[in-house]
Give the backbone structure.
Amino acid sequence: MIGALGRIALRGAVAWVVTCVLGWVLVELARESPALTAARAASALPPDDARDPSARARVVERTAHELALDGAPADRIVRAAGRAVVLDPGVSWRDRRPVGATVRRPAWATVARGGLAMILALIAGLGLVLAAGRRGRAVVAVVGGALLAIPTVWLCQLALTAAPGLATSATLAVVVLAAAPAAVVALHVGAALRRLDASPLAIAAAARGVGPGRWRAVHALRLVGPGLAPLVPSIAGFVLGASPVVERALAVPGAGQTLVAAAGAGDAPVVIALAAGTAALVAIAGGVAHALAQRLDPRLREATS
Amino acid sequence: MRPGAVARGDALRRVAVGWLVAVGLVAVGADGLASDRAIVAWRGGALDWRPDPRGEALRAQLTDHDWAVWPPIDADPLEVRTGGRLEPLRPPSAAHRLGTDDRGRDVAARWIHGARTTALVAALAALVGLGFGLALALAAAALGSAGRLGRGARSALVAIADALASAPALLVSLAAAALVGVRGAVAIAVLVAIPRGADTARLALAQLEAALAEPYADAARALGASRARRLLHHALPAALPTVAAATAITAATAVLAEAALSFLGLGAAPPTPSWGELLAQATQHDLRWWLSVPAGVATTATAAALFMLALAPARGSR
């Protein structure tokens, strides 16, 4: 148990550090120097037509010194990697506040909504498959396919048109975020149930008098459940990745809005911290799902032991 | 699968291919479908293709003996040339069949030219994702049978592909666009293609390694086929249906990412028309349906068609 938790934590930590380093490599690939971008993000740059042409250079130099953005690109990347290892995302380039303080509250809101959306997606996806039954496969395919193909922003607009009173409501955000993952669950479970329905196990169960409803709800779903584990990271990634769009379209506060605002202002530390946090969460979600699948399915446990 | 279901699937696939071909044709012929510049004009006894000046100015020059063929939608997608009458956010009318946007530009013209942005993003993402994914998979498969050092290198490549593929494509695109400061259709396509290409590589590698373990690959080896020949000539064809499906999903993801990034203001630079930009305008302006519905339906249909094609190779190989 402790070993499994350690492995999950390690996956999250590696994803965090790697994403932080990659983020800083991207910052170094930009056309502008990081110090110039930081000065621009803080609105500290004098206008181009200032009388003193060296004023901009002095501001950039001071910003570089204050934010430890001086030195060669490799030095800056190594410093960023060192900070990432001790879980220090640095300070915001816009307001010089610690990034942790800037993102903590919105990040919790987004993670809570994402968690609720994943639970709702699981319930809705399974419910759709069970309600559709064997004759409703086409319905599941059409509804699932449509939900996967609808752009999130248009889904938000359709939801706002259908329920205008729920604008700025976290409930609507959870429902919209859950739509595509529910489709993924429904399509995946539907396909797995079709395979199981044709298996010798189903014939044996029917021969022993098990009805179709009991076969699906008790026997088949137990076998299908562990197979959902590989979907968890991609669903978590989708839910967190779609948050900027959903939060912006529905005017709901959260990490997505913070990310978009930081991206617009060129506040790299906040962008990198949120991207790395998402990567770590996706990695942890995948690890937890894999561990749970091993608990539920002895075949997986034996295969990896 | 029952014959009825197969027939329904084939019909749906034909509809999907038809829609994608239509989007491609609209993208290629956008200038001939929506523009305030005549396609051809007969002026002073000479034929003039794509003549200048445009719109009303050309009409004023035409005499009774001259004529001009105009695009079906006689409006410019980028600029408003209404002779001083600005008509922002007007609902559909005879003059503007899908209404106007917040700067008075014809929505139908922007919708048609937006297909070009979508087609470019989808095609480029598919090509880059396919190239990157196949190269990564072939390199990993070749290294896997090249001794202990090669297996170590293969494991490193697989770990990189795993890490890239698990990253949410939209978030990666958003963060990278912000950090590097790049925008536009090409940037979106490349940023989406890298994580999706890594996923293609994982799937292709599994297929390649399974094919290399088949008896026919052993037989080829016994007949003296080199490692490269076994990989490219014998194993690669077995992986192509999976690679084709993954590439179609890459294109669909790029279409959806373009809509999302344009909505967030990180898509194609203004005034480039795109379906995502129309959706963004709809959110800014009380969800005007003539901005939202055509762009939403077109994006959904394109993504659905690509997802449908992604399922086709898997069904076909059964």
Q: What stands out?
A: Chain A has two domains: 2-85, 102-304.
